[in-house]
User: Fold this.
Amino acid sequence: MSIVPFLPEHIPGAVALSRAEGWPHRTEDWALILGLSRGVVALDENRVVGTALATGFGPVGMLNMIIVAAEMRGRGLARRLMEAVMAEAAQEWRLVATEAGLPLYRKLGFVEQNRVVQHQGILTGTTAPEGVDWGGEVETLAALDHAATGADRRSLIAALLREGRVAVLRREGTVAGYAALRPFGRGEVAGPVIAGNAEDARALLSFVLADRAGRFIRVDTTEDSGLAPWLAELGLAHVGGGIGMSRGTPAPRTGEFHRFALAAQALG
Assistant:
């Protein structure tokens, strides 16, 4: 078995791995993440049996898509994949863990930070509020995003503008928040949502989802966001989630803006 760089030609094997885990990622979803990341795969006679990606966002590195085929577990392969993909240093490493992955991540020095709550289902419908419209420029959105996350996610925001739609909340001529909507898995995912408070976050989500009634929608938020009851009222049931973890020196945030929904559990 060998560990080699993750190339586009490995995506079909990676899709097969994620489907075996019950993950909804399509070929296009893997391609988007890989396009923002560097990664490694484990090959057993040219079959992909393990994956790990690291997405660099300035001082922050997001570890994601860490999967090992069921028959290969218990051999230390996940640790080897993580060590390989973390060969390039980051000030702060972040990931969203499954319960099964917690023991390994703790051994590697990761500490639990928050609970990610996954909501999804057939949307009942929302009403578009005033003050929100489609648009936004990468640099403006990246500045808000950096204030909320401490990460430089220009590359992600540019990808969201290409692959989906981005809405901005304007107040007195100034951008006061943004939200994205893009195809993902069984339908669409709404996120990230960056805003100054929960009321603004709900306004942004209401806008991007205003014409999506009857469609399958996913929103990944956190327990402390305050959005969970409202999302459930919209038909988006709580169906699981993960554990946000980090290692290293936390990238500073200003506190003026907050992340109310993730771009994806893989991307924070």
Remarks:
- DSSP finds eight helices and 13 strands in the chain.
